[in-house]
Each structure stands twice: as C-alpha cells, then as structure tokens.
Amino acid sequence: MKPIRSKGFTLIELLVVLAVIGLLIALLLPAVQSARESARKMGCTNNLKQIGIALQNYESMHSVYPFGVGVVLGAPDSNPITSYDSRRYSAHSQLLPFLDLTTVYQKIHFDIQPFYPDTTGEPRTITGIGPNEEIAQTIIPVFLCPSDIDRLKHPWGHTNYRSCNGSNWDGKRGNGMFGQASAVRVSHITDGLSNTASFSERILGDDDDSSTDMDADLFGLAAPWTEATFRSWCENLSDSTASSLSNTDSNGGMTWLEGNMNFTRYNHFLSPGSTACKADLTWNGTSMPANSRHGSVVNIVMADGSVSSVSYNIDMLVWSALGTISGSEVVGN
Fold first, then answer.
1. What's the rounded Cα separation, in Å, for the pair 53 and 59?
2. How many structural domains comprise the chain?
3. Is residue 182 part of a domain?
4. For residue 13, is it within any domain?
C-alpha cells in the first residue's frame, strides 16, 4: 500500500513564509508611515492656509490686523495676569468669525479677564463659575496640527499655531505683526507681505514639570541679561543644565484663548527647532522658537497668505528678517 502524504505545511515552510511576510511588513511600514505623515503635514498646511485667509479677511474688514495679545486697561505698559482688568486675549480669539466660528466668538466675555475669576494662585484653573470657562474648553480643530501628540492635562482648547511677535527678544511688543496691543496695518509692513511671517507652529507641552523635554518645555533663569548674553545662554543650554532649572513651564499651547507668549505666540529670535527660554518671570526677554513634528521643518504662513515649509537649517539672517515687518532686510530665497 502507498503511504498517504500530508497536504499541510512543514514547520520549515511555515517559518519561511512568516519570515517573508515579516520582511515585507518591515519594508512597507516606513512607506506607510511616510504616507501618513505626508497626509498629516498636508492637513497642517491647510490649517495654516485657513488662518492666512482669515487674517486677510480680518484686515479687509477692519483695515488692521488683530493684536497678538491685549493689555491691562489703564496700564498699557504692564500686563499682570492676576489683574481683573487684564485683557490678554489672543489673535486666535479675534479670528474666530473669519474661521466660520462666529458662534464661539459671540460666547466670549471680552469685557473681563480671559479666565476670570481665577485671578490668584495658579492661573487658568477650573473654578466652575468663570464666564469663559465653557468656551475656553472648546477644541478648535483648525488650531491643532495633526502630526503632534497632545499630552496636555489642562482641559482647555489647545493650539499648535502661533502668531509672530517679531525677531527681537521683547516678548511684549516685538517688531513683528502681533505684539501686545499691536495695530499693524498693511502700510506698516514695508518689508513686503510675502517677506513677513504671520503665523507658524510649535509642538504642545506635556504638562510634566518633573521631566525635561528640550523641544516642548520653556526654561527660565533670572540674571542681569543683555540681549546678546541671553541669546548665548539659550543657544548653549544643555539638557543637564535645563533639568536643573527651577523655573520651567511645560504647558505650552494649552489654550487658544489667551495671548500669553507660551500659549499663542512665537518669535524669530533663534532658529526653528531651538530651545525656548525666558528671562525668569518676565516676557521682556524671551526666545519662543517655531518647531514641529514634521522632521526638521516647520510650516509658516506669510502675511500674503502663502504657506511654505522652512528648514531648521535656514540661514539665521533670513529667518530673523522674516520675523520683522519693517526691518528693511534682504530676505533672499
């Protein structure tokens, strides 16, 4: 009698098939991830395009661009967070009607502090009685980059996109389009709309002051700084030194409602991808660079509404020139 041959796979054949499948997955996975990131980056670009269009429409209606951050009534040269008269609203809040979010805009109580009555202790916490609390928790998809991961524990509507304060270290008025109580008109942008940055992006914080994240955290140190010494310190800040600092903010981008430099604004003081630093508790000296999770590039929308990807390795003179509205610099390509 002839022996009956099994029609199943041998162990060796099965192992070979699994090895081939594993190899194919290993080869395809990077391509799939790359395709997904390309789609996410395109979504980020589209968000910034919408913001750029909203800025143009705002300017067309009001003949001026929105401010980057409001002031304290009766005290334009100060902006204490704890003041009831603080009007530190963001450019984002002003753009809502031009992003088809008029309903959200109309619910904001602009006549009081953004997070009133939270005027003491740690700012911007839930009290249950704040008139703006409900609206501040609204998630605005156009303000969020699909490539980033949201690790923030604060309940507010977060944002990756920030208005440009300028290229110097002044965290209030700066020399860009969106300073404190700014009222920039097209005629003020003598560098040209296509050569002037309006918005860019920055990754969100992680709300963990116990760890050090050089990309997401903001590091502060009190010292008799000059602009030059502050720049040098921030450029050369190491992981070990940063982790030893007691003044660290890990809540970057935690709300689109308030015009705080760590929430809704950035500057061109240092190149994209650099470390964020501040001169202790004041915004008179600050470096708040653009960065992203798109690799070593950031998306930036110009005053004319165009959006481009900019390398972290961009010439610093060019990057600085893009941040100003009337610096008369030669931008180049």
1. 10
2. 1
3. yes
4. no
pLDDT in tens, 172-220: 889 999 999 999 999 999 999 999 999 999 999 999 988 999 999 999 9
- Tell whether 26 is covered by a domain: no
Q: What is the rounded distance in angstroms from the CA atom of residue 289 to the CA atom of residue 64? A: 25
Q: Is residue 20 part of a domain?
A: no
- Which residue has tokens 């097209």? 186
Per DSSP bridges, beta strands 276-278 and 286-287 are antiparallel
What are the tens digits of pLDDT across the range 210-258?
899 999 999 999 999 999 999 999 999 999 999 999 889 999 999 999 9
Beta bridge partners of residue 287, listed in sequence order = 277
First-to-last alpha carbon distance for the chain, in angstroms, is: 84
Across 9-36, average pLDDT: 71
Domain with 300, as residue range(s), is 40-323
Length of the chain: 333
Residues with Cβ within 8 Å of 222's Cβ and at least 6 positions away in sequence, in order, are: 247, 279, 280, 281
Name residue 258's beta-bridge partners: 89
Neighbours of 193 (CB within 10 A): 15
Token couple for 181: 């109580």
Sheet holding 247-249, edge to edge: 247-249, 218-220, 276-278, 286-287
Nearest-5° angle of CA 87, CA 178, CA 242? Answer: 90
